[in-house]
Specification:
about 170 residues, alpha+beta, three-stranded antiparallel beta sheet, two-stranded antiparallel sheet, 6 helices, 11 strands, globular, binds zinc ion
């Protein structure tokens, strides 16, 4: 896996539409679009190796928010991982003190059935009962790109072989 916490960057990370020079090293590739990354400094885009190497740490640019517990994992997610393709500013979830891996924007095919779907909801501010309706709004087919999703997105994560998801809407 290219990124420890982001399974399919080529499908679900925001990238520039055609090869562009990385704002940091100048290497031309299909860089990550950094336009939406928050922080003190602004850059257009960043290549995979600069992102992985932590080039954003000194620039204080943070692709992701999380509960910063001072761990290496928290730093990796904040600075060295492509941004989650969310509509709103959402922090990277935490499960029992650990950060799960972002797998994909989910479809019904990512779950065995509605029960499996409901049981893997990461209850934070909402209960399973409150989000039951989301099952009927899931895309039926597995998504191959973030732009195939609709205005409601379910973000699927995994940790120790278990599924977890959170959601938001446009
Ligand atoms: Zn670069």
């Amino acid at each position: 896996m290219e990124f420890e916490f982001f399974r399919y960057p080529e499908k679900f990370a925001y990238k520039v539409t055609e090869p562009k020079p990385c704002s940091i090293c100048g290497r031309e590739e299909l860089c990550f679009d950094a336009g939406g990354y928050s922080g003190i400094n602004d850059i257009d885009c960043i290549c995979t190796s600069c992102l992985k190497a932590g080039a954003l740490i000194d620039l204080e640019i943070e692709p992701n928010m999380n509960f910063d517990d001072g761990s290496e994992a928290a730093e990796t997610i904040t600075y060295k991982t492509p941004a989650l393709p969310t509509w709103q500013d959402i922090g990277w979830p935490m499960v029992d003190g650990q950060f799960p891996v972002f797998e994909c924007i989910a479809s019904a095919e990512d779950f065995l059935d509605k029960n499996d779907f409901l049981n893997s909801f990461l209850e934070e501010d909402q209960t399973k009962e409150e989000i039951e309706w989301l099952w009927d709004r899931l895309p039926q087919k597995k998504l191959n790109h973030y732009n195939e999703g609709g205005d409601i997105s379910v973000y699927l994560f995994s940790l120790n072989g278990k599924k977890y998801w959170i959601w938001d809407a446009n």
